[in-house]
Amino acid sequence: MTDFVQLWVYLSSTPLFGLTATLATYGLATLLYERVQRAPWANPVLWSVVCIGGVLLATGTPYPTYFAGAQFVHVLLGPAVVALGWPLWLRRAELRSRGLALVTAAVVGGAAAAGSAVAIGWALGLPADVLRSLAPKSVTAPVAMGIAERIGGVPALSAVFAVITGMLGALVAKSLFNALGVRSWAVRGFALGTASHGIGAARAMQVHTDAGAYAGIALGLQVLLASWLLPLAFHAFG
Predict the structure, then answer these.
(1) Which of 41, 89, 147, 205 has the most CB within a 10 Å radius?
(2) CA 224, CA 136: separation in Å to the nearest integer?
(3) Angle CA(182)–CA(100)–CA(237) in degrees, nearest 5?
(4) Domain of 201?
């Protein structure tokens, strides 16, 4: 037992720990996801976060120690987001013809996402800084943190809200779309990308190529529009 503890202390303090834990956990979660025929509740991102977070808490491993190794995976986030542009390029003529409709839908969807979150939080009596942190919840986490900082929110809290929003969207979107009778893959993808940013877009890409393409453009539009409009709105009415 003593030897095992010493080995764990050594491994958990090296970059190899974070990298190995991330890859192994996500790999196992993906196997489960495929085994249950990609059921929304088995989303591998969700279970990877739960499992790795549980291990860090149980072992008392500091997050910076874990991230020293996980950063080698984190750096791939940039190329992964850029890769979302390829399906858009393949559909460039279609997207060009629908440009005005897509931008209008993005503005309305983004306003509904931010406005409903702030309104519910206000009705529940949440503090002003928490309300400002809630507003960019449907924008991808790094951008949400920047927006929160500009409008007087708490960047770390905005990141948490963004991740939770993305997870919930990936989990409930299929059932919600089915209940509402939404059949178009383009509409499903765009709605998911608007409400649940990158995590939703990843889920849409797994389900159907059209859904993934429209989720990607919705993600990009929300980043651009929210970065510009949310600070204007809060400075004008805050």
Answers:
(1) 147
(2) 12
(3) 90
(4) 82-237
Mean pLDDT value of segment 98-119: 93
Given 75, 103, 130, the domain boundary residue is 75
The residue among 48, 75, 102 that closes a domain is 75
Q: CB under 8 Å to 20, separation ≥6 — which residues?
A: 69
Enter the pTM of the model. Answer: 0.79
Into how many domains does the chain fold? 2
Q: Could you report the per-residue pLDDT of 29-42, keeping only the tens digit for each? A: 999 988 888 887 88
pLDDT tens per residue across span 114-164: 999 999 999 999 999 999 999 999 898 888 999 999 999 999 899 889 989
What's the distance, Cα to Cα, between the start and end of the chain in Å? 58
Quote the Cα angle for 12-199-137, to 5°.
Answer: 100
Per-residue tokens: 32: 């489960």
